[in-house]
């Protein structure tokens, strides 16, 4: 009895090997391309977060500064008014004038006590300082996260075999966030 040999014919074996190699190479190309696309999109997303924090600062800080300035101006006007009334006490020459100054002074104090039981300029300044620090910290974290994502991407684009595939697909290194000249000088907030 002749036993038929199980298996592939020699010509079929070569075809299967060639197809397997083509599939492995195609999988490598697709895998690296998708890896670079994901990494590139992660960089775009991280940069968008940096821009979001910049926009938050641009929207928030001027409004907070104006609010603090408004409270400070209001409290300053109250103090000026009360100080002016104290000066009127010294200038009063008659009991009638003194009585009028006293009534005006009592009225001003009642307005302050009823409408503004607690002066808040100091609290607002402290809140502004905390918000400035928090905002700058958010920006610093977003910048750091961006640089981390760019560093990971650049490592994959520059190291073997990623550099081979990156060159084929047109992916190059990306720039990290760098401080602008003069940014080492702290910005001033003035009132």
Structure description:
- The chain is mainly α and 191 residues long.
- It has a single domain (10-163), classed as Helix Hairpins, CATH 1.10.287.
- The protein is 78% helix and 0% strand.
- The chain has helices at 10-91, 95-115, 121-158, 162-169.
- α1 (10-91) packs antiparallel against α2 (95-115), α1 runs antiparallel to α3 and α1 crosses α4 (162-169).
- The longest helix has 82 residues, at 10-91.
- It is rod-shaped, with a radius of gyration of 36 Å.
- The chain starts with 9 loop residues before the first helix and ends in a 22-residue tail after the last helix.
* Low-pLDDT ranges: none
Average pLDDT: 80
Domain count? 1
The proportion of residues forming helix, as a percent range, comes to: over 70%
What is the CATH-assigned architecture? Orthogonal Bundle
Number of helical stretches of at least 4 residues: 4
CATH third-level topology: Helix Hairpins
Q: What Rg do the Cα atoms give?
A: 36 Å
Question: How many β-strands, per DSSP?
Answer: 0
- Write the element-wise H/E pattern from the N-terminal end onward: HHHH
Class in CATH? Mainly Alpha
Helix- and strand-based class?
mainly alpha
Taking the alpha carbons of the first and last residues, their distance comes to 106 Å
| Biggest sheet statistics | none
What fraction of residues sit in β-strands?
under 5%
Q: What overall geometry do the principal axes of the alpha carbons give? A: rod-shaped
List keywords for this structure.
0% strand, Helix Hairpins, 191 residues, rod-shaped
């Amino acid at each position: 009895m002749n036993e038929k040999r199980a298996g592939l014919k020699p010509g079929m074996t070569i075809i299967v090997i060639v197809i397997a190699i083509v599939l492995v190479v195609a999988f490598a190309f697709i895998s690296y391309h998708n890896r670079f696309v994901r990494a590139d999109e992660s960089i775009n997303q991280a940069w968008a977060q940096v821009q979001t924090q910049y926009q938050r600062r641009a929207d928030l800080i001027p409004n907070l500064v104006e609010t603090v300035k408004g409270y400070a101006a209001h409290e300053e006007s109250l103090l000026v008014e009360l100080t002016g009334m104290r000066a009127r006490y010294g200038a009063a020459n008659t009991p009638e004038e003194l009585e009028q100054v006293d009534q005006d002074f009592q009225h001003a104090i009642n307005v302050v006590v009823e409408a503004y039981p607690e002066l808040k300029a100091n609290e607002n300044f402290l809140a502004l300082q905390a918000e400035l620090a928090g905002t700058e910290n958010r920006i610093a974290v977003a910048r750091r996260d961006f640089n981390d994502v760019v560093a990971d991407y650049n490592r994959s684009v520059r190291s073997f075999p990623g550099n081979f595939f990156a060159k084929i697909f047109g992916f190059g290194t990306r720039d990290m966030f760098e401080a602008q000249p003069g940014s080492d000088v702290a910005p001033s907030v003035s009132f």
